[in-house]
Amino acid sequence: MREVAIVGANMIKFGRYPDKFVDELAAEAAVGALKDAGISAKEVQVLVSGNLRQPMTGQRITRHIGMTGVPIVNVVNNCATGSTAFRDAYLMVATGLYDVALVVGSEQLGKMGLLGGGGGDPYDRVYPTEGYAGSETMPTVFAQAGVEHMRKYGTTIEQFAKIAVKNHKHGTLNPYAQYQIETPLEMVLNARMISWPNTLYMCCPTGDGAAAAIIMPLERARRHTAMPIKVAASVLTSDPWSERDLAVDDVNTLTRKAAQEAYGQAGLGPKDLDMVELHDCFATPELLHYENLGLCADGEGGRMIDEGRTYNGGDIPVNVSGGLLSKGHPLGATGVANIVEVTWHLRGQAGPRQVQGAKVGLAHVIGVGAACTIHILTK
Amino acid sequence: MTQRVANALSRPLPYPQPESDFYWQKCKQHELWLRWCKDCNRSYFYPRDICPECFSRNTHWVKSSGRATLHTFAVVHRAPIPALRDRAPYVVAIVELEGGARLPTSLVRVEKDPKALMALIGKKDALEVAFEDVSETISLPVFGPAQQ
Q: Is the Cβ–Cβ distance between A53 and A209 less than 8 Å?
């Protein structure tokens, strides 16, 4: 396997674009990544497109940026769609198959509401399968995971709410975030209850967005940029069976497995990380992932947010982009956008939200169903 | 499109599979049956011929006592589809059955107050199964406080 580096990274501001088609959004991100890498679309040897709900988006992107006849792969892996596309491209370059890969993650959700989460008929997404019995939604799955933590460690709804306070505060400094509004603790706690313990501001919004990256083998990358960002680990896991797993996803086990493999691959540990972008689709899972990713010991997640250690400026800043809660979560775009965000910080290009001196960053995504990706990037 | 509208107006129901057909037939008779792995000496959910823990085929059906312990829950205030809106707020839960298996379900006859529900968590066998007849072929197992 060859070492692989990110040469180009770009995203559009997440939000709502009712007047545009998703391939236009995706093409805008792709053109930005090409420009950032300083290459033409003619140099791209393979395109991997992550998009959950709009089939053949990859090919539609080339109608905007140039149809060169290169192989195009369209990837679907629920919320981990974009990051799985990135990993596929990484593997193609690492194994020596191609030298220049373009990855694009995109999605147009509009106002899908709570049903947003999968392809096909949205009503099928309420899991009309055995066991689930058609009453569960994403807020519920992650609420139940939060309650498990509360029963085990005495974690409080206030501690979960503080996650939303932090991420919205971070989002105010990110011009690419869907929302730039602060949500003080009282506002979070008093907001409309969606699925106890998650209130409205503890749930990520739906929206539209796109993000793109250009990757190359490290040696070639050095010819294009003075700041290649190395992919030190690229891991994909599915749910290992656990007691509650057959019918309802356990959001913890696959992240723990992925983290272990990623740290092993990179030869790094959680203490080496300068920043983390993790999958805060709701406030509850972010706190769980502090422990799943080894940022603190089991049961210490609540204290970690109480002490503000995951704020920008704290000892391990988490979701300085605003996270999914504030930046938004256009499903297929999310996994690539997290990688773009970490890349910008490692290059020192993140503006007012820059994590000072960031050299190592981790991007984590979960797709319920289930898929988990972790990428560790280094300067 | 017609199907979509129909789905929105009615509650999505389980599709019995060859391996779970017996389970749903028994639910219809208001009995809860689970697969039991003779090698692991425990039950599991949902019904599969092969044990998900040890991959053994040495499994068979056993009737559950229906007693269960609350493992976790969520109180749903915002229902995902019109068919469930009248029920909101409602409580979905994962319960641990006597015998080991965990089952995703709904709670009935409970206070929808999170504090009361938190207090119910871990109380051994404090819940018992009941059945909600939702169609001609499907009855859903739900759980409420055990009547001593």
A: no
